[in-house]
Amino acid sequence: MVVGAGRMGSGIAQVAAQAGIDVLLHDRERRFVDRGLDAIRRFLQGGVERGKYTAAETASAIARIEGTTELERARECDFVIEAVTEDLAVKEGVFRALDACLPPDAVLATNTSSFPITSLAAFTSRPESVAGMHFMNPVPLMKLVEVIRGLLTSGETAARTVALARRLGKTPVEVRDSPGFVVNRLLMPLINEAAFCVYEGVASPEDVDQVMRLGANHPLGPLALADLIGLDVVLSIIDVLHAEFGDPKYRACPLLRQMVRAGRLGKKSGHGFYDYSQA
Q1: Does the annotation count 134 as an active-site position?
Q2: CATH number corresponding to 184-269
Q3: What is the mean pLDDT of residues 101-120?
Q4: What is the value of pTM for the model shown?
Q5: Which one of 4, 113, 130, 159 has the largest count of C-beta atoms within 10 Å of its C-beta?
């Protein structure tokens, strides 16, 4: 089961189905489930049009995914990946509910991008069965999965998580439990400093991104990447890093916070550091 049918959750469900695994895609409302299923169909159909997949492969993958709003159906599963919004209270509710209905030998993995795995595992009675499984966005295209052991995660749980990542065609990298893990501990300060460059009038968003594309050979500038991730998600991760480490180097740029308050969240809202309203 994948809990959360947003961009990340639907992507995880898609790659699992393409790997031959039957998947329950869950969200709290049917409209969210249907939106996730539609996103999967559109992505796969685009692959057919580009000659990447056959129509038969696409139909087979879609047939392996069943949408549901019933979290209790986790009773049928031996592996659950939580991919809900990056909000600790929301995750706590999901973890406690899953703990009450998962089979004893099931693995509960989280796609959290910043919260310590040990903290999330503490919401359950089975911390040895909880692990981090941090996918990159967009899931179908990005190869990396960070696999994170909490303080009490068992070796068997970690091994099963690594094995699933490999079955999904990903490259698992095991890292220790620390806020932001490795990817976001490095990436978020870069995005935050890029936002400070704009905030302080050092350069425009376009020029900041061009400097990093041409000067550091980044395929996408940090501010365009922030818009793709979602500025609300970026801000949430930076705030977690700041709270967990207590280090002022993780202080969020005021411009970033202001943009989130204004509803300029990036590509998903039509406007962030760039304007996507005509896209």
Answers
A1: yes
A2: 1.10.1040.10
A3: 96
A4: 0.91
A5: 130
